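Protocol step 4 of 6: structure prediction from sequence.
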Amino acid sequence: MYLGIDLGTTGLKCVMFEDDGAVAAEYNEEYPLIFVGSFVEQDAEVWWSNVVTAVRSLVEKTGRRDVNALSVSSQSISFVPVDDDGRPLYNSINWLDMRATAECERIMRDLGEETVFLKTGKHVDPAYSLPKLMWFRENRREVYDRASKILFPLDFLNMRFTGKYVTDYTIAGGSMLYNIVEKRWDEELLAYSGIDIEKLPEVAEMGADLGKILPSVADELGISPDCRVILGGQDQKIAAVGAGISDGVVTMSFGTASAIEKLSREMNADSPLSQFRFNDGYFVTEGVADTTGAALKWLSRTMGGVSYRECDELAATSVPGANGVTASTSFSKGASFEGITLSTTRGDLIYALYEGTCREIADRIEKMGGATEIRVFGGGSKSEIWCRVLSRITGCRIGILDTPETASRGAAIIASHGKIAPAEVVRFIEEK
């Protein structure tokens, strides 16, 4: 048996897999964000309590405690300061939090975006950890000084499982403090920010064996003390593993937002998109379309609560080009519909939205250097017509998987050292 644990931004999914990759049982639970004025935080202890509840529930459902290994797919960029015993000293500052805009302006002024990007693969943004760590050190100095470690969600769970403070390249790479070319915490950025390297976790390659789970934790979870903990990574990258990412295959989480992942042997120093170290052999470029599923949710709600199935049925009454209607779908910046006339139908509006979101995805893929195949997962992958529009606009064949959920499977693939296979492509969609 293997456990794949997917710790998302607002929910946990935990799946127990048989040795052959069949799903034995699964568990889902949501947990809240904490809003403190304009700040966005979370209670890290809630992450752990949900993991305990999830694993114990799976053991109870299956009657099995013989878990060979587990691995974690995790939200990244969020961080939590802990004391010598690994107990949180402060809420986790969430990746959605934007409190550090002034720190970003300082970084741009003092270091410049090119310097930061060539080291970290990141364009300066308050979502990343570095500016928020600077804010935290300056504005919560007493807590910062007391902190033994500052942990990201993945390494917080690893610490609870094993007592070790270890993260992977993909999580470290989201911090804007990690040199993805030289595979180390960057001394220049540490010196500039005043962040102590001793407070940061060790960094290792995804798939590293962290050893056996602590006996007391095995007892708490109800699983075998022989269970090994295998280092996972950032959720979008682990989901890409679960979807079968490879040299010739781009993956995309077709969800509320859409994250597109493409492997390369070298960092693309000229890319306008984020770069990560994936493992010792590969880098990965990530392109994000901010509001795909979220845009459809808005439109379905605005139309009076039309279901997603009904949206597809209405879209099927329109045609490529949506009878002259076009949609700009970056809702986080301000979206728009143009070309609406008295003859425009609901189907035209939905089809235009499908085309607009797919143009945004195609733009990201073009900036990656192009692709011929995209394997999609998430809610949008269930829409035949949307996937056909995606194929037509990107010029790629679209691989439909046997499951829309791949992060927990990716974690199980890593836990099993590849014995469990990625999600299967059940069919391809190619639309000219």
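Step 5 (inspection) to follow. Residues 346-367 form the longest helix (22 residues).
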